[in-house]
Amino acid sequence: MLLQEDWAQLDELTRELHEIESGGEFEDFVLGPVTRFIGARFASWNLHDPGMVMLEVVNSPEFDNRVKPLVESLNRTLPTHPLFGRCVDFETGQVRRFGGIERTLDFITPEEYHQSPFYQEVGSKLGIEDQLVMQIIVEEGNGIMLVFHSDRPFSELECLKASIVRAHLVAKYHAMQNRYNALFREAEAVSARLRRQLTGREFETLEWICQGMSNAEISTRMGVSTRTVDKFVSAVLTKLGIDCRTRVIARYAPWLTIPELLGGGNIAHSHARRLRV
């Protein structure tokens, strides 16, 4: 059972979690405060796509600093790892659904783990004596999985902490996903309304305006003269009933950029898009 000080830390984590507004903050939270609360040394955050193929692996700074020199060994030995073989089909790259929390030493003895290629080539050099994998979500082909690494076997208390924290993370993820979906639907409605009001070229001009481009820059992008762009801009302002482009940007830029930022209304997609930039 959790000790009194553990509950106090959990309450603080929960308060911090409720204040998170973006996917990036969520990711930083699980790689920092959550990792420390569970008792891990470092962690990685993995995303997989609708085909269940791994998209990205984002590491906590300490993990990244330690693992970079061993990436080749890591990639070669992970398929032999007893826990990761349960989580990922290394022949197809697909991620498997499991119960939520899995721990390496639940499937192999410490002696067997120490004899594994992963430990001999990677774990021994990084001081990894146990791993705990936490599946946050596998839904509609998208997934998020956290991997925590420790320099000693995870205790029952730490596994309990991970299970409790996972419930909070999953709830927060769903709340954020619902909010993202609502924003995405509203942005699509605004875009559809604008497309009905404006011609195709006028709508394209509006998109460039909302990216802060001058008429000269827009003319280059659209392959037309600056004078033609002047006419497009004038038509946009007239049809929208706005007297200057600054107000156009303030009113419409957020809605026209939301679909791109949210990656189609999905947090996992938005992470992958952001991380590839």
Gist of the model:
The chain has 277 residues and is an alpha+beta fold. It has 14 helices and 7 strands. Helix 5 (71-77) runs antiparallel to helix 8 (117-126) and helix 11 (215-222) crosses helix 12.
Nearest-angstrom radius of gyration?
24 Å
Would you tell me which CATH topology of the largest domain applies?
Beta-Lactamase
CATH architecture of the largest domain: 2-Layer Sandwich
| Total helical elements | 14
CATH class of the largest domain: Alpha Beta
Q: Shape from CA axes?
A: elongated
Specify the CATH homologous superfamily of the largest domain: Transcription factor LuxR-like, autoinducer-binding domain
Secondary structural class: alpha+beta
**What proportion strand?**
5-15%
The figure for the number of domains is 2
* Strand arrangement, major sheet: 2-1-7-6-5
Q: What is the distance, rounded to the nearest whole angstrom, between the alpha carbons of the first and last residues?
A: 43 Å
What does the average pLDDT come to? 85
Total DSSP E strands:
7
Q: Helix and strand succession?
A: HHHEEHHHEEEHHEEHHHHHH
Low-confidence stretches: 269-277
Q: Quick one: biggest sheet?
A: 5 strands, antiparallel
Instruction: Bin the helical content.
Output: 55-70%
GO molecular function, one term: DNA binding
Protein name: Helix-turn-helix transcriptional regulator
Pfam families: GerE
Keywords: DNA-binding, Transcription, Transcription regulation
